Amino acid sequence: MPKHIPYPIPDGVMASFWSRVQIGGEDECWPWTGSCSSKDGRGFFSYHGNRSAPRIALIISKGPPTDDEYFACHACDNPPCCNPKHLWWGTNQENSQDASVKGRLLFRTHCPNGHELNEANTQVRFERGWRSRNCRICLGIRREAIILKRKLRAAGLDREMTPFEALAQIEHARSVLVARHLAKVALTGLKGISND
Ligand SMILES: [Zn+2]
Ligand SMILES: [Zn+2]
């Protein structure tokens, strides 16, 4: 249950709070620039046992919740956002119902290369106030391609081969990598893919 927070919040605390919010246009998201949870992307702001930046943004703008059980929910579905216009008080259950409806409407179901973005194959990251969802299969292929490129260069292949030969070599290696990666994914049921 969220902690009860004394109200009103002193001016000094408010000033320190807003100094960590990247305030934009009225309808834009205002990302938290301080530290964020790597788990759910919400900003951290410590005040009387509270740790949630969106909660403080809501208390400042709309007053405390009528029930301490209420959470600061995001209408924009962008956890680092502290724009009071994008926040509303709701129960944990309302919040997750809302999120699952939005999730179906807002999120891509497949990556640009056609891999399904299910829970196991989706890497979620929070960077510079935004949520990014990446395909783990494509991330793996990209990582291996970078290593391959480095190896080709180390072997002097990029200098000795004509550009066409090098390109053919890389294309061939890439198709092998894709096949190998897909086989690996199929074998491990995605459990073996590193968690970064
Ligand atoms: Zn927002
Ligand atoms: Zn993909």
How far the N terminus sits from the C terminus, by CA atoms, comes to 31 Å
Number of helices: 6
Bound molecules: zinc ion
What is the percent of helical residues?
A: 40-55%
CA-atom Rg in angstroms: 23 Å
Low-confidence stretches: 192-196
| Strand segment count | 6
Q: Please tell me the overall pLDDT.
A: 79
The string of secondary-structure elements, in order, is HEEHEEHEEHHH
Global outline: elongated
- Provide the domain count: 2
- Helix/strand-derived category reads alpha+beta
What does this structure look like?
The chain has about 200 residues and is an alpha+beta fold. The protein folds into two domains: about 10-105, no CATH class; about 110-195, no CATH class. It is about 40% helix and about 15% strand. The chain contains six helices and six strands. It has helices at about 10-20, 55-60, 90-105, 135-155, 155-160, 165-190, and strands spanning about 45, 50, 70-75, 85-90, 120-125, 130-135. The strands form three sheets. Strands 1-2 form a two-stranded antiparallel ribbon. A two-stranded antiparallel ribbon has the order 3-4. The chain is elongated and about 70 Å long. The protein starts with 10 loop residues before the first helix and ends in an 8-residue tail after the last helix. The model is unreliable at about 190-195 (pLDDT under 50). The structure holds zinc ion (2 copies). One zinc ion binds near residues 111, 113, 135, 137 and 138.
